[in-house]
Specification:
Radius of gyration: 26 Å
Number of strands: 25
Number of helices: 16
Bound molecules: dioxothiomolybdenum(VI) ion
Structural class: alpha+beta
Mean pLDDT: 96
Shape: globular
Strand order of the largest sheet: 3-5-1-13-10-11-12
Low-confidence stretches: 1-10
CATH superfamily of one domain: Aldehyde oxidase/xanthine dehydrogenase, molybdopterin binding domain
CATH topology of one domain: Aldehyde Oxidoreductase, domain 4
Protein name: Xanthine dehydrogenase family protein molybdopterin-binding subunit
Distance between the termini: 40 Å
CATH architecture of one domain: 2-Layer Sandwich
Keywords: Molybdenum, Oxidoreductase
CATH class of one domain: Alpha Beta
Length: 703
């Protein structure tokens, strides 16, 4: 049922057609250069040194022996690094994370905190010197374990209100025929992007240039300009190809330390994080402890809904994993209460990670709905259909479109849900117990101001310049299709250049808002350019360029709830002798706005669903409570789903054109992971009759 509504410019309909990546050939032939491999003359290499203790102070750093080693150029640390300006509010609405604004003091707030940068002529020399640098610490007792009843926990807002509430919860629970009160936990999870963070900083004629791997070149530029008290126009950040980000690629220690060293040495300096370093320096998803209370009438209609989530943050930066937020969209109830709480521990700062809040939050609420369905004797798909909200349950605003019911019905039809026997633990295939499960999904669909430059070239082609980021999503290709339609031409005549802060302010690749935000600005510039061309058919050698700023036009979005929706279905096989869980098939049907490029959109959705399998069964960053450090912070110890773990996954969509968007887009970056882990966990219950409320569902938990 893949359908695509024609856009406003149906005459030229590149949008909606499947296209391989415009830079695909460069990527598979190695011609595409990533931040850590672009050559620079006179390049020096920095290696970060991280604290080995979890809380305390740096007592001494013995630099002399290291400075005598071959090739070593300098050692930067809190005793000699320049003072940064950190008293500002950045794009995320917070001051910079002190873990990124490095070397400003001797305090150590967590294990893996950056204490020094060793710079040498070669990466090998830098590493050798960094590993032999002797740092001594005054150690203090630490606390790194998230506990549900920690009295230091407090309600925290982050990017949404900390708490919402309406109605009398206890009264509605007392009046409910079916009730549920359960706790769900999810572990610390790591982004594990393929390309670790890398940046090269160089001063070029009074201008700072940083070649980096990030989710927003303009974002990193403004943060670096603020930190180093530079005029934004004297900083340029480029980020052309990015090997994954998932929320982790913003301002980090690598860029800041590279700029410090390039300034001190007056030569280009590159800093690349190792995989192990990313475990403490690149953010992560906080573990969560969530309590869900539900009360329903005999037919499953919700009278009471409470979703409370606790997450951790560091002692130096507040980040909220807003897991209770998804319940504010998916379900209404007469009494409806949600809250996000946070507790400060001696741990690294968590950050945005694909579907921040929705990924762990949907595990809890969608597993709870499955339990409610069981207790009420109502089919899980039917239960969700009966609880479809008319409008935003908390906001009261109408939905721009809410096609969750269409996703549920289409998904159930294609998955063969109607044949399902709801009783658990009955189906066998040899040594395997079989079960199926499902869950709903929702993720916000917004747009943020962006600027675009669109040029009509003298040869009849077009060049689009926008500080967008393609973190592997296919954004560059999607924008090519969007620009082609907006310019009433073919994709072959459009060149899209991205990843350069000199192209002007633009939304980051984040919040599933990148493509839509950039498309808005490109569409505006293109339509103005077409008007200009109609009046001036002769194009001068330098071309005709129009610059747009979408800020004013975005006001139209304010008056409605905007979300993508989805329905996830999974079939699992469980071996109760070994504890092994295999996902046999998975289907996701999404309502995610107009689909720009079916090929890369499907990749995004399947990628998210794959991550949901991984979240359900494998991923767990484990910290030793005695040392405060991770066990095995690498991809040997941190299990992610590999090809052998992933069956055929089908992702498809229903027609869902956002009526207020010039192209009809919502966004596909994050919705694929939402609900996916719950669908797997619900299927494990159906197979075995045992509820697993703590992720991941490891073999030892099955046994
Ligand atoms: Mo995404 S977690 O908004 O990069």
């Amino acid at each position: 049922m893949t359908t695509t509504t024609p856009g406003p410019r149906a005459l030229h309909a590149a949008v909606g057609t499947a296209r391989t990546r415009v830079e695909g050939r460069e990527k598979v032939t190695g011609a595409a250069r990533y931040a850590g491999e672009i050559p620079f003359a006179g390049l020096a290499h920095g290696w970060l040194v991280l604290s080995t203790v979890t809380r305390g102070r740096v007592a001494s750093i013995d630099t002399a022996p290291v400075l005598a080693l071959p090739g070593v150029l300098t050692v930067l640390h809190h005793g000699n690094a320049p003072r940064l300006h950190t008293d500002y509010i950045g794009m995320l609405g917070t001051p910079p994370d002190p873990a990124a604004a490095v070397f400003q003091g001797d305090r150590v707030p967590f294990a893996g905190w950056p204490v020094a940068l060793v710079v040498a002529e070669t990466p090998e020399q830098a590493r050798e010197a960094a590993e032999s640098l002797v740092v001594t610490y005054e150690q203090e007792p630490h606390s790194t374990v998230l506990t549900t009843d920690d009295p230091a926990a407090y309600a925290a807002a982050g990017h949404m209100p900390a708490e919402t509430g309406k109605g009398d919860l206890e009264a509605e629970l007392a009046a409910s025929a079916v009730v549920l009160d359960e706790e769900y936990t999810t572990p610390e999870e790591q982004h594990s992007m393929m390309e670790p963070h890398a940046a090269t900083a160089v001063w070029d004629g009074g201008r700072l240039e940083v070649v980096d791997s990030n989710q927003g070149a303009g974002w990193v530029r403004s943060e670096l300009a603020a930190l180093f008290s530079l005029d934004a126009s004297s900083v340029r950040v480029r980020s052309e190809h990015i090997g994954g980000g998932f929320g982790s690629k913003g301002l980090r220690a690598h860029q800041v330390s590279a700029v410090m060293a390039a300034t001190a040495l007056q030569r280009p300096v590159r800093v690349v994080m190792t995989r192990r370093q990313t475990f403490s320096l690149a953010g992560y998803r906080s573990p969560t402890a969530q309590r869900v209370r539900l009360g329903a009438d005999p037919d499953g209609r919700l009278r009471a809904l409470e979703h409370r989530s606790l997450n951790q943050t560091s002692t130096v930066y507040e980040f909220v994993e807003p897991s209770a937020g998804v319940a504010r969209v998916l379900y209404d109830a007469d009494a409806h209460h949600t809250a996000n709480h946070v507790v400060r521990l001696d741990v690294p700062s968590p950050t945005w990670m694909r579907a921040p809040g929705e990924a762990p939050g949907s595990f809890a609420i969608e597993a709870a709905l499955d339990e409610l369905a069981e207790r009420a004797g109502v089919d899980p798909v039917e239960l969700r259909l009966r609880n479809e909200p008319e409008a935003g349950p908390v906001s009261g605003l109408p939905f721009s479109t809410n096609n969750l019911a269409a996703c549920l019905r289409e998904g159930a039809r294609r998955f063969g849900w109607a044949d399902r026997d709801p009783r658990p633990g009955l189906r066998r295939d040899g040594r395997w117990l079989l079960g199926t499960g499902m869950a709903s999904a929702s993720f916000g669909a917004g747009a943020m101001p962006s600027t675009a430059l669109v040029t009509a070239e003298a040869d009849g082609s077009y060049t689009v310049r926008i500080a967008a980021a393609d973190i592997g999503t296919g954004a560059r290709t999607a924008l090519t299709l969007i620009a082609a339609d907006a310019l009433e031409t073919t994709p072959e005549r459009v060149r899209v250049r991205i990843g350069d802060s000199d192209f002007g302010p633009a939304m980051i690749a984040g919040g599933s808002m990148g493509t839509r935000s950039w498309a808005w600005a490109i569409t505006e510039a293109a339509s103005e350019l077409l008007e200009r061309l109609a009046g001036a058919p002769d194009i001068p050698p330098e071309g005709i360029t129009v610059r747009s700023d979408s800020t004013a036009a975005l006001g139209a979005l304010a008056q409605k709830e905007r979300h993508s929706f989805g329905a996830q279905f999974a079939e699992v096989a469980v071996d109760t002798a070994t504890g092994e869980v295999r996902v046999r098939r998975m289907l996701g049907i999404f309502a995610a706005g107009r689909i720009v490029n079916p090929l890369t959109a499907r990749n995004q959705l399947v990628g998210g669903m794959t991550w949901g399998i991984s979240m359900a069964l494998h991923e767990e960053a484990v910290r030793d409570r005695n040392t405060g450090r991770h066990y095995s912070p690498d991809l040997a110890g941190y299990h992610v789903a590999t090809h052998a773990d992933v069956p055929d996954i089908e992702a498809d969509w229903v027609d869902d054109h956002d009526p207020d968007d010039p192209v009809g887009i919502k966004g596909v970056g994050e919705i694929g992971i939402v609900g996916a882990a719950a669908a797997v966990a619900n299927a494990v219950w159906h197979a075995t009759g045992v509820r697993h409320r703590n992720l991941p569902i490891r073999p030892d938990r099955i046994l």
